[in-house]
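Board work, copied verbatim: Fe/B12 periplasmic-binding domain-containing protein
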Amino acid sequence: MGDEMRILSLLPSCTQIVLGLSLREYLVGVTHECEIDGNSAEIEGVERVTSSVIPIGTTSQKDIDLAVKTSVSSGISLYTIDEDKFARVNPSIILTQNLCSVCAPTKKEVQRVSDVAYPDSCAHHGLNIVSLEPTCLDEVADTFMTVADECQVHDRGIGLKAKFYSELYKVENATNRIRENLDLRKPTLMLLEWLDPPFDGGHWVPDMVEIAGCIPPDSFGGKKRRSLERSWEDIVSADPEVILVACCGFDLERNFKDATETLFDADSEVSKMFQSLRATRNGRVFAVDANQYFAQPAPQLSMGAALMARLAYDNDDRAVSLLNDALGDLIPAEGAGWKRLKPKVVEGFKETKVKDIESVWELHDEAVKNQQLHYTDPETGLFVFTSLAHKRRGRCCGSGCRHCPYGHENVSLEKRSEFIVQASFLNKRRADGFAKHRYVVFFSTGKDSFLALRQWIALKRREDKMGWEEVLDRIVLLTSFDSTTKRIAHQDTTIDDARRQAKALDLSLLAVPLHPGKDYVRSIDEALDLVRTQQGAETFSLVFGDLRLELIKDWRDKYLGHLGILEYPLFGVDYDELFQDLQLSGVPCTITSREFGKDLHERSCQEVYVGREFDAELRKACVECGWDDFGEDGEFHTLARVWEVDSRRALGLCGETRAFQQ
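↓ predict structure ↓
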């Protein structure tokens, strides 16, 4: 390397490599897009020798794409090289590329200008044209050595390459650790390299996706390929969990602006389709500085991989904290390297509140009947995937979709109770077996359903000579609740209360959200289908805690009888026997709600109030004021605090259960 070395970089990534090799003093010319020390304006001693035929900053993506395609077909370059400036900088080394005619002047164009400047011979003038054409991360790293060797700084090239790999390994190791330690699976991630029309990222991007602990959508895999134009139907079908808007050559602000206008604000079919994606509904779409971290095959790609990992696991606070600790400054800061894109409506896990919700289920059924993958939500105007679309995917996407046929099995148990919109297991017994016949106990969290559970276990052990583990393995608690409020009808308890009970008792819990306008029997039938598919059940005993109301029992017999064998282990049992069994369990039961109908108000019982325990004194007070002392007429409801007692005693596994006479 001598003082006569004069480097002309005709590609922003080449400029970054030169700077990474500490060769700034030898840089005499760059493109109009290159940044030096964060500066894209004129820099003393460095000529900007290129210009663009189209004003990129003010031209739409659609028009840019049209210009690019016209350029390719006509052979006319989008970039011009100022021949006077070229001659003035008098380079000895020209760094260019032949990978993409869209990104910068091609080697052919550079050769043409060189021939004009030096008509006798470039070689005679000591000019060497170096073309870089990396297609993957390994080849990107190799270009560091190519430039270093050409500039006679071999050791610097080794150092830059080693630093690059060290940072990539750091990202890969960090994502591996968080998945292992937090038991997380790899999310599907798509990088959109262009929006109008949509292109997905190719070349080195698939390598970055893998290093960042992600996988591409099923239909978008494959390495060492160019970026490919896609249709929005392709993207809807792929339905990635995370999307990065990283349009080639654009900084953060331009990507954020274009994504907002194209994908979120426009009242178009594209906007509606994009907002139907689970990434959009779950707030996992991000605009990034593509120019700095993704588009240029330069050392900053390691920061792009770190940013990709950070955004891919953004939905888990624990993972974010661990990644920040492990990667530190390698992750570009929010607002500088990335911004979250927010849709008009983020449905996420939560049920859309539609004015006429019944029409939603009718629309869904009609769409499935017609083999359609989605329908339009009548209130939001967004596309909603049908169960048919989810079945074609072949697995739960983990987003809590309205028509998920897999019981939200890939939504974490911690989040299911909060976001559930379809029947789903909120707890599974540790030793859960696969018995063909299952005991489904309708469980409302109160004393009656708890006593029915105890009595059913006792009956199976006593009459069928079954061991207690075998009985418990067959039991599924079924709790229905309001899909919007998450509360259990009448009880004034929540589905989280039921989950807490199921965990304390180590029993499977099947939660069934009830939607206005959707038939109750249909909801229960679909829930039982989940027990069939996930637990191998073929037949059911449906166990209820009804005590005396013939009307309710008759309704169940009429409308639920076709679903299984209906059992009423408490029906007609004397209340004193029930109370004695409750005392044997040791489980305290607290009043959670009190009904004030017309008749009740006229003879109100002041001893019944929310927060009081159900005990002998309360029963006595109820009788004195003419109430049913077990609240069978709806006077009050309770919560069985099973977590305060050893589960074996609570379930009567140690002999503390009365044999009822019906």
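Confidence is low (pLDDT under 50) at residues 345-358, 598-602.
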